[in-house]
Amino acid sequence: MPVNLQGRSFLKLLDFTTEEIEYLLDLSKEFKKLKLTRTPHKYLDGKNIALLFEKTSTRTRCSFEVAGYDLGMGVTYLEPGSSQMGHKESIEDTAKVLGRYYDGIEYRGFSQDLVQELSDNAGVPVWNGLTDEFHPTQMLADILTIEENFDSIKGLNLTFMGDARNNVANSLMVISAKLGINFTACGPKELMPSEELVSICKEIALTNNSNIVLTDDPIIGATNADIIYTDIWVSMGEPSEVWSSRIHLLEKFRVTKELMDLGSDNCIFLHCLPSFHDINTVVGKNINKEFGINEMEVTDEVFRSKYSKVFDQAENRMHTIKAVMYATLK
Ligand code: CP
Ligand code: NVA
Fold this sequence. Notes:
The protein has helices spanning about 20-35, 60-70, 90-100, 110-120, 135-150, 165-180, 195-205, 220, 245-250, 255-260, 280-290, 300-305, 310-330; strands at about 50-55, 75-80, 105-110, 125-130, 155-160, 180-185, 210-215, 225-230, 270. The protein has about 325 residues and is of the alpha/beta class. It has two domains: about 15-135 and about 315-330, Aspartate/ornithine carbamoyltransferase (Rossmann fold, 3-Layer(aba) Sandwich), CATH 3.40.50.1370; about 150-310, Aspartate/ornithine carbamoyltransferase (Rossmann fold, 3-Layer(aba) Sandwich), CATH 3.40.50.1370. Strands 7-6-5-8-9 form a five-stranded parallel sheet. It has a four-stranded parallel sheet with strand order 2-1-3-4, sandwiched between helices. The structure holds phosphoric acid mono(formamide)ester (CP) and norvaline (NVA). Phosphoric acid mono(formamide)ester (CP) binds next to helix 2.
């Protein structure tokens, strides 16, 4: 049966079949070609979208904006704290109002329940631009980047190093299971994905001939990995007091050249960004002053190496987000 995502929200990858995810990836490749050949594609001319951000963003916000303009749409950006939502107006009422003005709504915020509630009440597609639990649009860009670097993705070994229960790690585990990629969550026991999500993903992985492994040994995690992926150690919305314990727990999972060398011959490095690979940021400088480290989740050497595909990955956010909006709004 042909895939049809018209009118669907994009809240988490668990809601989508393998075929639907592959369809979105194929569509992303088409949109990337159109963009790179400067071929106009205002296929959604006359529609309007709202971008609702309760946390900060560079890539996600800019990708939605540029993709929206490229598709011919009007775009409204609502920055954190700038709408009535949450303070003076319930999620339900906000969704019902925005649904009257807009054809689609992007939401970045806190719990997954909030984005679900928006979607339940808006009457138009809602796209999850990151919650505490999941970051599904990121994964499409990640897989597109992996596809650009390997002949086939089935059976590849993807290792996530670090805070293995954060939104990015959770989503990577889900998409790996759906697409037949072997996934290793490599981090301290205290920061492992929930047993419930692991068991759901193991079941899905089984049907796609792949597996899910958890380990707290970075040597095991890196050995024979085709993709080593990491993310910041403290996510948006977490209190700054946790830095000290995170550094203590996660230092041995920093992605170094030594770990990359344990990967397969064609091993690549991925990171959703932003990254603390040096101290050229306010947070990086503060951490350096307080804890004496100048690189966190990845060394500057790996981040800038030829194995690092992080800027292709960032570019691919835009092509994949365009595909999601087009597929659900066309
Ligand atoms: N990777 C990502 O979502 O980046 P932003 O926080 O800048 O949107
Ligand atoms: N885990 C990170 C991802 C940022 C794109 C965060 O939630 O802050």
